[in-house]
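ARCHIVE CARD
Drawer: 12
Card no.: 0347
Subject: one protein chain, sequence and derived structure
Cross-reference: see card 0346
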Amino acid sequence: MKLVTAIIKPFRLDDVREALLDLGLQGLTVTEVRGFGRQKGQTEVYRGAEYEVSFLPKVKVEVAVEDDLEDKVIEAVREAAHTGKIGDGKIFVTEVARTVRIRTGEKDMDAV
């Protein structure tokens, strides 16, 4: 089992969610996060004063998938989140050693 984590622009969330639902995934976790990469922040103007925003708002989407769906999920997220501009985000894939559903005690893919 894999955990696919994508850091994306907030306005692309609905497109990513729809792309994942189209693959038949039943659930995902979304967290509002802040960070920077090559963008190194941006300059904003508020009431005539210029200031540097070093951490930009992003959304972290996490979904646990079976190994055979990994590539399809990565491609679906990449296509849905892509704008072609700097700051589109990153996708990370990690191995999930074990999963347990708290309510029923189901394990691994049965718990997802």
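Annotation on reverse: The longest strand covers residues 56-65. The mean pLDDT is 90.
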